[in-house]
Amino acid sequence: MEIAIAGAGIAGLAAAALLSRQGFSITVYDKAPAPAPVGSGLIVQPTGQAVLAALGLSENLKARGARLDHLDGRLEGGKRKVLDVSYDALGVDVYGIAIHRAALFDMLFEAAREAGATINQDCEVVGVETAQEHPALVFANAAASAPFDIVIDALGVRSPLVSRQGHFLDYGALWANAPLPAEGFQENVLAQRYRGAKISSGVMPIGTLQDGGKKLAAYFWTLRAREFEPWRAAPLGQWKNKVLVLWPEVSSVLDHFNDHDQFVFAHYAHDTWTRPVEGRVIHIGDAWHAASPQLGQGANMALLDAYALVRALERKAEPHAAFAEFLRLRQNHVRLYQAISWAFTPFYQSDSSVRAFLRDLLAAPFSRMPPMPKLLASLVAGTLGDPLSKLGLR
Residue 205 and residue 64: Cα distance in Å, rounded? Predict the structure, then answer.
């Protein structure tokens, strides 16, 4: 079976590596002229770790990433907690691994290449031709690919193969990387500070870009999308002063930023495409289910989708039957986390002062009441709904 994958991101490369290892003929198309990730850091949760283990990448992941045991979110001043999640509520060997996107990208790109996938760069996919039974990809230069048995859309939330409107949220975040400070921040803790639901700041250890390299941290700052251009136009020092009022201890991180171009702005979205399967075209990852990163699930859901598609194609030789099996394996977990993300995000990223007040009043005491510590840890770990058992990964 010949399969085309549009997009060489986490979902696309994982699918390419897994499917190639099963003997499928895989061709990946990506618009970047050279292999390159976009963004800063992310958390590989236990769900994503299980998929990477199936790819034989566990040791690389642990060597390059930073183990996370605890998520610690506090109000301005640092005394009052409003987010307190410990992975050890799920067991001593359960944790997240925070990693630079570039490090994870490199692992998956090499795994896909070594497995035998053909990766074509500088090929921007803008559409899919489905007039015939077998779909073909359409490129920005108006050329088209040969027909494929299956097309996998892994182009993310902005996929041109999906018609979306009004899915972007008001908020996003600035992201940048800096050396992990020697003092003031723990290597296994994601630390955050909040002022209401409008302003938040965070420091997350993300390991190293190469073996033996300098330990890094990802820094992020919540920002409305409409405020990004005014932020770029203002002196950077003006913004730094605002950050230091919220969180003085972060000065050792801010010292490494002297140019607006050191930051990437991530504009968050929330949308679940209602037709994840369209004939012989299947949408996975953010192309199917985009959500804000408040629960830290984006990359992990993409990895689970890729693994589920491989399992489905193993069990069902005919594409339409395989796609039905894929939806059986993934649809309920996707629905669960999309619903929770939709409900959860406004308490940490919105203009609502009422939600922020309720969060500040109730979050800390409720998070300590049984069974909440274990439930919150399961939510963050991505294991709510037990997706790993369904995929045979546990």
Answer: 11
pTM recorded for the entire structure: 0.96
Pick from 387, 376, 191, 172: nearest CA to 300: 387
Element (H, E) at 170: strand 168-179
Structure tokens given for 342:
């939709």
Give backbone dihedrals phi and psi of 276, rounded to 5 degrees, phi first.
-65, -20
Q: How far apart are CA 289 and CA 11, in angstroms?
A: 12
Alpha carbon 140 to chain centroid, angstroms: 26
Tokens matching residue 179:
């050396």
Element (H, E) at 326: helix 319-344
pLDDT tens digits for range 242-275: 999 999 999 999 999 999 999 999 999 999 999 9
Q: What is the pLDDT of residues 58-96, one digit of tens each?
A: 999 999 999 999 999 999 999 999 999 999 999 989 999
Helix (H, G, I), strand (E, B) or coil at 274: coil
Residue 205: how many other CB atoms lie within 10 Å: 24
**Which contacts of 53-58 are long-range, i.e. CB under 8 A and separated by 24 or more positions?**
54/18, 54/307, 54/393, 55/14, 55/17, 55/18, 55/108, 55/111, 56/111, 57/107, 57/108, 57/111
DSSP calls for 64-93: HSEEE-EEEEEETTS-SEEEEEEGGGG-TT
Pairing assessment for the beta strands 96-100 and 81-86 based on DSSP bridges: unpaired
Pairing mode of beta strands 150-153, 2-6: parallel
Q: For residues 156 and 287, is the Cβ–Cβ distance under 8 A? A: yes
Rounded Cα distance, 271 and 263, in Å: 25
Is the Cβ–Cβ distance between 330 and 339 less than 8 Å? no
Euclidean distance between CA atoms 206 and 179, whole angstroms: 10
Contact 85, 367 (CB under 8 A): yes
Q: Are 48 and 303 in contact (CB under 8 A)?
A: yes
Q: What are phi and psi of 125, to 5 degrees?
A: -80, 125
Please count the helices (runs of H) and the strands (runs of E) in the chain: 12, 20
